[in-house]
User: Which sequence fits this backbone?
């Protein structure tokens, strides 16, 4: 056996070119198999890697794609702007809705006040804020020779009209205190001369628009004037005795008048016409007042009644409460009023009750010798419209301010304002910033007493509010 055959038999590789060629063939087969395995495995790897490689290949292109996405089409831009515009509109509508709701709340509050005012239940609390003025702060306007009997303030608080027993009417500037106009006394039987009053002027009224001024005197006449120029317009006749009370219905030119002839008359000033006459009082009527409703209230003097006249129904409500002559009356709101009498009492009334809701006796104290004391007569009353503030006047050397309690069932004294003389007329300004008093040496309806030290004058009393205390830490 040859060496080659032995080597083959033992499985040893033969040396030589043949063996090398065989080995080379086997390596190629293995390599080819390995390559095939690699190619198979590499195929799987390539599939797995291909996604990675794709992501890697896409990664550098991502910003470019984002830029491409940011580059909108014209349609997309329109859609985006439309959405933005709609959002702005929605925000604006929300803001408008909030503002509208706020305004509606304010309007609702005002409407509520208006309804309460119409029903006569509005009662603003201002009395506690009023500070008693010092005597030096009171402005005194002198021009009348005799006692002031009545006065009115223009609706804009710019001027005061005062009248007196000297038969004259003076228009005063509220700001400067100077005379703006004087309507002199008219001589009886003097024709062709400027018109005026020839007897004591007892009452005046001014329309709520400030256009007309009405004045009534002891000669049974009612004179109508243009308030701005003080030019005489008309003269109303018809009363059979002294005209003692005048009042315009608010918001209209309807005029109510009352007289010592016990009647109440209705006039239309704008049309210079008489409307009707109402009867009911049993004695001379002393005073009258009215607000916006088609009705008026009267103080019945010696017949001891307060009456509410319902003009459309031609009916009246009769109230009792004072023991003496009821000489003055004033409406606080549409449902409440205050009156004063010569028995020294001040009464608060509600139209639903025939008796006073509150009665303050001896409101200005007593006068006279011990054992013979008599109460000071109440010669004038006034109320700040729709509030709880009331003022009363007498000849007790002071004007008194009062606070009406809740429901007008109580009257509490706030302060005294020193004024010497008969306080024959009181009026609050529309703003409530001041009170005007007509002062005389005698009572407006007679000469029972005469206070020599008094000055016949118009007194402007400022009503300052108590400053609100500063908050803690401010």
Assistant:
């Amino acid at each position: 056996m040859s060496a080659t055959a032995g080597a083959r038999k033992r499985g040893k590789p033969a040396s030589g070119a043949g063996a090398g060629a065989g080995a080379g063939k086997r390596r190629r087969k293995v390599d080819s198999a390995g390559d095939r395995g690699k190619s198979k495995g590499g195929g799987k790897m390539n599939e797995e890697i291909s996604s990675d490689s794709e992501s890697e290949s896409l990664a550098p292109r991502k910003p470019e794609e984002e830029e491409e996405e940011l580059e909108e089409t014209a349609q997309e831009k329109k859609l985006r702007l439309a959405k933005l515009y709609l959002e702005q509109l929605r925000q604006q509508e929300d803001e408008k809705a909030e503002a509208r709701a706020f305004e509606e709340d304010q309007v609702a509050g005002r409407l509520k006040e208006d309804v309460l005012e119409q029903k006569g239940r509005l009662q603003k609390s201002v009395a506690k804020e009023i500070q008693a003025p010092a005597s030096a702060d009171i402005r005194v306007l002198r021009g009348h020779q005799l006692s002031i009997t009545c006065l009115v303030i223009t609706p804009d608080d710019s001027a005061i009209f005062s009248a007196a027993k000297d038969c004259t009417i003076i228009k005063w500037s509220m700001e400067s205190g100077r005379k703006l106009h004087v309507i002199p006394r008219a001589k009886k039987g003097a024709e062709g001369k400027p018109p005026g009053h020839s007897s004591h002027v007892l009452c005046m009224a001014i329309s709520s628009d400030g256009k007309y001024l009405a004045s009534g005197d002891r000669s049974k006449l009612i004179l109508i004037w243009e308030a701005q120029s003080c030019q005489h317009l008309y003269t109303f006749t018809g009363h059979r005795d002294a005209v003692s009370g005048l009042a315009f219905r608010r918001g209209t030119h309807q005029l109510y008048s009352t007289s010592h002839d016990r009647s109440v008359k209705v006039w239309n000033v704008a049309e210079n016409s008489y409307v009707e006459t109402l009867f009911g009082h049993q004695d001379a009527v002393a005073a009258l007042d009215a607000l916006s409703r088609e009705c008026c209230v009267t103080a019945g003097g010696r017949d001891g009644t307060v009456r509410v006249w319902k003009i459309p129904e031609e009916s009246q409500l009769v109230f009792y409460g004072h023991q003496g002559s009821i000489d003055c009356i004033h409406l606080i709101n549409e449902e409440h009023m205050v009156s004063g009498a010569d028995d020294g009492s001040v009464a608060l009334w509600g139209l639903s009750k025939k008796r006073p809701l509150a009665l303050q006796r001896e409101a200005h104290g007593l006068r006279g010798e011990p054992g013979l004391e008599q109460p000071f007569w109440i010669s004038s009353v006034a109320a700040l419209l729709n509030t709880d503030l009331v003022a009363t006047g007498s000849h007790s050397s002071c004007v008194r301010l009062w606070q009406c309690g809740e429901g007008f069932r109580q009257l509490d004294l706030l302060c005294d304002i020193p004024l010497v003389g008969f306080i024959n007329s009181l009026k609050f300004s529309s703003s409530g910033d001041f009170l005007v008093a007509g002062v005389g040496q005698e009572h407006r309806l007679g000469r029972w007493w005469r206070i020599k030290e008094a000055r016949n004058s118009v007194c402007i009393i400022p009503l300052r509010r108590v400053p609100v205390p500063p908050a803690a830490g401010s």
Remarks:
- The first strand starts at residue 130 and ends at 131.
- Confidence is low (pLDDT under 50) at residues 1-60.
- The longest helix spans residues 74-119.
- The CA atoms of residues 335 and 351 lie 6 Å apart.
